[in-house]
Amino acid sequence: MDTRYTYYPGCSLHATGIAYDKSMRAVFKKLGSELAELEDWNCCGATAYMSVQKTVAFAVSARNLALAEKTGDDVVAPCSACYYALKHTREGMAADPELRAQVEEALAAGGLEADLSVEVRHPLEVLLTDIGIPRLVEAQTNSLEQFRPACYYGCQIVRPFGAVDEDPELPMSMENLFTALGARPVDYPPKVRCCGGMLVATMPEVATELSMDLVDWAVAREANCIVTVCPLCQSNLDLINVTTGGNGASHQIPVLYFTQLIGLAIGCTPEEVGMQHALIPSDAHAPPLRGAPLTIAGSREG
Amino acid sequence: MKTLDPLAGPIAPGVLSKTEQELRAAFLDEIDRIPGGARLNQCIQCGTCTASCPVSHAMDITPRQVIAMFRAGAIGELLESRTIWLCASCYHCTLRCPAQIQITDLIYALKRIAIEEGIFPKRFPVHVMSETFTRNVKRYGRNYEVGLLLRYFLGTKPMGLFARRRAGYALWRHGRIKLRPDKIKDIEQLRKIIAKAETFDLPQEKVTREKVTAAVGYESIGR
Ligand code: SF4
Ligand code: SF4
After folding, report:
1. Torsion over CA: B59, B57, A152, A240 (sign)
2. Chain A residues with CB inside 8 Å of B198's CB?
3. Contact B86 A12 (CB under 8 A)
């Protein structure tokens, strides 16, 4: 396989989202695709930067695009906020000549230029379109039959740009993928609702309510894990289990990245996909999952 | 039949006097500089945005009201509202708006103006987060989560740090906290880019409350 991508991990995947980073690398490696980390990438600008200064936010984000253009491979950004920020920058510059001129001038001050020749993509879309479900099924070594995931998409990969699914109100791509891999996804109505995002730090009461609701839904639908596509969603939902501890058993549900689940299916070890970083372990508190990672570890293949 | 003074206000429902028309045109001209601002006059006040918003229940002014008040010129109140800081930028309102109004981006624009004007609601120090974030990017090129949170809590509510200790500890124990910031190699290049970009932001974002309200002539509305 000679597919190559420029990997933009973003700040979270180097810290709270370390398991996402590990599982991304493990899955792409297993599938024979090259994931080359963008050399000297900087912060994407994300949502907080947007609320401070506009042109600066675009320029900060555009430096990454300019660096990525040196190799010309598509940029893969796993964090929803990074994905949105980079994509927004690319589309915004393409649509607004005045903004583009300003950003280009700013980049030029640092000796860079951007001709917007690289695409910004989310790994879910890359895995589904470039690799495709048939090849993932072909690569499968372990069944996911013990998993009853609540597939959670959150906000910025479905809107406003729509990374994967045609229907931004009812995406089904993860459900289709995991059904094909033998899991039994549950019907999960709040799948595109907001997890609270950065409000977790600034207005925790409001954020807690939003995250809690997502967890309650998953429990009510008898899911045994929640599968996310974003490091902020993952840590918000994972932390709900800890910060509200003592509130009852309903808040003890493992929160995994979709790449972790894919990794387990195609023969990566639980360690390789970073299962050890989850606050709620997958083999505890969720009876149908008990022992699952061990079964999977046992059938590891080189 | 009585002749109506064209300067005396609305002639009939839906028909505006000449002065009103001019004032409104001036105002719309002003908000045209805000992303998606030009479409604001298409709002039909259907409330889809409010109904779609996951945090509207906690807002003092709902997204639908934001649009109405914006059009009415009550910018000052919007800048002082909790709403603009509560918005989680989830884009649900924007996705569903039948008039394709970029509500999320409009709220971003209001946040920017509020930060620039130094208007922040008490007890909702979200801007500290944004500003810390900005400082981190200038210093390291990356966002250093621990520094961000520490500074945020120490700057706003030291007790919050205490309450969050448990969460912090859990993350640390699972290898998810970085104790030292990552610094990019070519930070100088990034600083030059930021410095240049900043020169474009200042004049463009000067849509201050005085200027807007003066343009509309609605100083007294909603005050
Ligand atoms: S959804 Fe759009 S048209 Fe309806 S009230 Fe909100 S902004 Fe106005
Ligand atoms: S983007 Fe903001 S205002 Fe719109 S629905 Fe989401 S939280 Fe509410």
Report:
1. positive
2. 53, 55-56
3. no
Among A215, A207, A227, A238, residue whose Cα is nearest residue A153: A227
Query: Which residue range is the domain that position A174 belongs to?
Result: 138-296
The answer to whether residues A94 and A241 belong to one domain is no
Q: Is A20 in contact with A257 (CB distance < 8 Å)?
A: yes
**Candidate of B103, B105, B106, B107 to mutate for ligand 1, largest count of ligand atoms within 8 Å of Cβ:** B103
- Distance from the CA of A84 to the center of ligand 1, in angstroms? 23
Chain A touched by B144 (CB under 8 Å): yes
Interface predicted TM-score (ipTM) of this complex, two decimals: 0.79
pTM value is: 0.81
Q: Give yes or no for a contact between A152 and A214, defined as CB atoms under 8 angstroms apart.
A: yes
Chain B residues in contact with A18 by the CB 8 A cut-off are 175-176
Q: How many residues are given for chain B?
A: 223
- CATH architecture group of domain B10-123+206-216: Orthogonal Bundle (1.10)
- B158 neighbors A24 (Cβ within 8 angstroms): no
User: Do A55 and A149 fall into the same domain?
Assistant: no
Q: Last residue of a domain, which of A94, A121, A148?
A: A121
Domain spans in chain B, listed from the N-terminal domain onward: 10-123+206-216, 127-201
Q: What is the pLDDT of residues A3-42, one digit of tens each?
A: 899 999 988 787 788 899 999 999 999 999 999 999 999 9
